[in-house]
Design goal:
The protein is α/β, with parallel strands linked by helices and 243 residues long. The protein contains 7 helices and 12 strands.
């Protein structure tokens, strides 16, 4: 695993996970989606800038694909973000990539913030809001309550069949950043590795320990860029969110 290190003091650490294969963008871009330019800078630069400006963040660890380390290092130098302490090559899964980021953190850290590198429109104020909330000693995530009707859909003999309508007020789309006490998220990843338990986000790993995660109302602008169509929405949002 290749790592570039920097020096700074630390209290609350942020891990930016940007090591995905961008497979669902493969027909649109020949390189990682984190480096697609939205507005005046690449997606990853938007993310790093917000965490750099957030008052509650003391250090930033960036996890990227190994062949993106050089490009990320150049980005850090270009925008002079001295809170970034490490650029780390990621793993096969998002979960493994987060664990590699956690391994870069020293034990004197109290809280860890984990954020998707493909969510460029999180603001410094929102970061400070959720981190400050977690200073109570709790885990927290942003989420959006759904407005559409949701159904369970199963494959039947005549095609897809819809049945059962969950209560909309109880269904939320979970976002990042997600914030955890350091000891708790570290333990959650250790136990998940030990038991070969896999999840799509870090809240699920913490919940698997029997712990609760508080959900704060997030912003609809905090989209995750996954498909080429998302870039159309991202370009419109970039005209609204100015950092």
């Amino acid at each position: 695993m290749k790592t570039i290190k920097y020096e700074t003091r630390r209290n609350t650490s942020a891990i930016i996970v940007a090591a995905g294969q961008s497979s669902r963008m493969s027909n649109f871009s020949s390189y990682s989606k984190q480096f697609i330019v939205i507005g005046d800078k690449p997606v990853l630069a938007h993310v790093l800038n917000s965490f750099y400006l957030a008052k509650t963040i003391n250090e930033i660890i960036v996890v990227v694909r190994e062949n993106d380390i050089g490009r990320t290092n150049n980005l850090v130098k270009e925008f002079e973000m001295d809170k970034i302490t490490s650029i780390v090559s990621g793993g096969v899964t998002r979960q493994e990539s987060v664990r590699f980021g956690l391994e870069e953190i020293k034990d004197d850290v109290d809280f860890v913030v984990i954020h998707d590198g493909a969510r460029p429109f999180i603001t410094p104020g929102e970061i400070d809001e959720i981190v400050s909330y977690s200073f109570k000693g709790v885990s927290a995530t942003f989420g959006i309550q759904i407005t559409d009707t949701v159904k369970f859909v199963k494959k039947g003999s005549d095609g897809l069949m819809a049945s059962n309508v969950p209560a909309k007020k109880e269904i939320w789309k979970i976002q990042t950043p997600q914030v955890f006490p350091y000891y708790l998220i570290k333990l959650a990843h250790e136990k998940a590795k030990e038991k070969k338990f896999f999840a799509t986000d870090d809240c699920t790993l913490v919940e698997n320990l029997g712990e609760y995660v508080h959900v704060l109302k997030g912003s609809k602008l905090n989209i995750k860029i996954t498909y080429p169509d998302d870039l159309v929405q991202a370009k419109l949002i970039s005209k609204i969110v100015k950092l």
